[in-house]
Structure formats: structure tokens, C-alpha cells
Amino acid sequence: MKHDLDIDRIKKYDAVVCGGGFTGVAAAVSAAGSGMKTLLIERNGCLGGVGTAGAVTCLLGGMDYDEGDYLFVTGGLFKRLYYSLRKTGDCVDVYSINRDRNPHAWHRGLAQSIIFDNEAMKRLLDGIVTGTGVDVIYNSYIFDAASGKNKMEYILAAGKGGVTAVYGDAFIDCTGDADIAFMAGCPYEKGRPEDNLMTPATLIMNIENVDTEKLLDYIEKNNSPRFREEIKGLLKKDSWPFEFEIFISMLINRTGRHMINSIRQVGVDGTDEESITMGFIDGRIQNKRLFDIIQKNFPGYGDAVMASTAEMLGIRETRRIKGDYILGLDDLLMGKGFDDTIALSSYGFDLPDPQKPSYQPLEGKSIGGRYTMIPYRCLVPQNIDNLVVAGRSISVERDVLGPVRVMGPCIGTGHAAGTAALQIADGKKNKSIDLSKLKDSLREQECILGENEICKVRRT
């Protein structure tokens, strides 16, 4: 919408990236790397979004495993992060994982990921974006956007110094919630078609001093990686006061420190500040209850201490734009490929039911091809010609969210959006860019666009 505000803080950029999660970092680095004057705006005090502020210190969907080798399915920033952190000892070397011993207390399929130290990742992301010449603004909240004649003109951001109007030639929405597309009036969907309900949220908890060997011994002896049978026993004794019925923990890269990704908060709307507030309050209460129960009942946790809960609520689903193409469930089941594929995902169907948080509606279904192929057209919103959307809010059917919402493919779509911004800033409409040129530029950044480009993770 148009504003009559008297704003004396005005900035102008070639590319404006809204949201500094891993998606936004990939977009900003790609845009700045092509010579564009680029701004990255983030509401938190660090980059990385759910992965850092949200404490989900495990980047999924960008690796695969085959006959003893780990493979990169997402390249570019994903690959750079892994090698940089491995070099400094700040992530788990995937080749050090004993896959026969239920790695990291989760199941084997999730071993192929970047399991990282949170503080090291924050520093690394800071260095990458500033080293590429990106201007970064933290603690700034985008609250509106002005558009007209199918074009974004500026966004309004509030910070300690007041309101700033940021003009741009190309805008990239990496908010995860399609906030900018929403503000600009682009069509979108939210939640299930029948009732608009969304999959549960999670406030992550970190605990320390876990006896991981004792835990793994018990898991292997009882074939109980998620304590389903033990929880059934607690339910019979009225000692499990939760709606979820599985326990998910993961050893991160520090001895005895576990990320607890267990609680499932039904009814949280990640686009509503009052709902998010209650999600934080409820999440801290639920995590303390959960900690007390596992400390008393689960092997390995008897001497554990509750270290922290996340500074950002983990939201799995909100808005999805209606784009130039809607990637459908049938596309995945058939293993469909696309001429404009710009990113891949190695992750499977994972989107719990909104009201039954331990139930996976698509459990047992398999993706037809080895990987999910994501076309560029899913990043192109309707009605606005100089806006590209990346991350989990791209144009897909709800059932497709499972494979595309995790960090590997989000980084891939971020790269594509930031790279497309150069042509958009030069006057091309987002849906009319030269796809051949886009894909060539992505490959120059070592992005992976097809199965024939997948490469092995180097051993140390």
C-alpha cells in the first residue's frame, strides 16, 4: 500500500533480501556476488533463522548417502558451510559417524546432514555475508510494503532509530512466511485447504550432561530410537501429559549435549504475534515438564541439566504463495523433472498432522525419483514482477512441504532467487528471465541442479 508517512530515513539498493535465515544468506550472497548492491534485513540479532536463533542445529535435505559415500545434493552455500565448519572442528564430520550405532540418538536416515556448533555458525555466516559485500541490518522488522503497477517500490522497516523506507530494483522474500508477498497483495494459501490448520510448531530445548553411550546402548538393545513403547507405558500411568507420543533427541557436536526436538505445539499460527507469544510461553512450560519426565524415566538422562530453550519458535508451515507453477504431490510421486529445476531435496515426507502431532499423513509414501526437483516457476509470485520468493513459502501443494521446507532445498531456492535478481534489476520480469543464463550462473556458484551434478563429500 501507499503511505503518507514523513520518512527521512531512505535507502536504495539493487537487491533487497528480506529475512536472514539460511535462505536469505544464500540469496544475499548470490546477489552481491553478481555485483549488485545488496541489503539483507533480519529481525533477529544473528543470521541463520531457525537453524541458529531457533536452535535447530542440523541442516537437513542437502546430503545423501550411498554405499559408504556421502553426497552433496545441495551445493553452493550448503557445501561451503560444511567444509568451513569441518575444517575448524565446528561440525560433525559425516564420515566419523558410525551408522551401525544409531547415530546421534536419531535414526540413520538423518545422519547425512550438517550437525553444527551454533555460535560457530553465527560467526561464519556473519563473515560470509560481510565478506561478500552485503549490507546487513539486524533487529529490524519489516512491517509493510508499497507496490503499484505490478511492481514493488519499497518496504518499510522499523528499528531502534525509527522507520526506514528501503527502495529496490529487485526484492527477495526469504521471510519463510511470504510476509513481503503477503504485504504486496500476492495470492497465497495457508494450511490445509479444508480448514487452514497448520502442522504443529516446536520450541527447541538443549540439555547437557547426557550419558550418550548409556542412551545408545538402551536404544539398540530395545530397538527404541524414539521411546514409543516407553511412552505408551507412561500414558497408561497417566504420566505423559502431552499430545505427541514420540521422543526426538539428537546429540549435537558437543559431548553430552542434546537438541530436543520433541514437543509438538498444536494450534500455533506463525503469522500471528499473539499466537507466537503463547507458543513461547507454552513451549517453555512443556519443555520443563518434558525434561522432568525424561530425567526420571529415560536411560542416559538421569544426570542431565536443562541448558536452554530457543530464542525463536520453530515454525514448520505458514503461507505458501500461488506461483507461476504449483509443485504438486503427483509430481513427487511420479518423480517428475523440470526444465527449470533450480534446486533438489533429499528429504522425504515429513509434515505431522495439525491435530495429531505424532501422525504423519504421508507415512509410507515414497518420492518417485531419488530426489525432489524444484522448478524456478515455484519462486515466482503472481501480480508482482520484481519479487522472487524463496524458502518454505514457495508455490507448492501442502503435502509437498515435507521435502522442501528443510534447510538444504531452502538454501538452493535462496541461491536461485538471489541469482535471478540480477536479471530482474536489469528490467526483466521475474517470470521472463533467461533460464539458461540463470542456470549457468547457479552452476558457477557450484549449485546442484540435477542428479548428474551430485558430487561426493570429500573425506578429510
What can you see in these coordinates?
With 460 residues, the chain is of the alpha+beta class. The protein folds into two domains: 10-192 and 319-456, FAD/NAD(P)-binding domain; 205-309, no CATH class. It has helices at residues 22-33, 77-88, 118-131, 179-183, 212-222, 228-236, 273-297, 329-333, 401-404, 407-425, 435-444; strands spanning 10-18, 38-41, 58-59, 63-66, 69-72, 114-115, 135-137, 141-148, 151-159, 162-173, 188-190, 205-208, 249-251, 258-260, 305-309, 319-321, 341-345, 372-375, 387-389, 455-456. Strands 1, 2, 7, 8, 9, 10 and 19 form a seven-stranded mixed beta sheet that branches. A hairpin with a 6-residue loop joins strand 13 and strand 14 (258-260). The longest helix is centred in the middle third of the chain and has 25 residues, at 273-297. The chain starts with 9 loop residues before the first strand and ends with a strand.
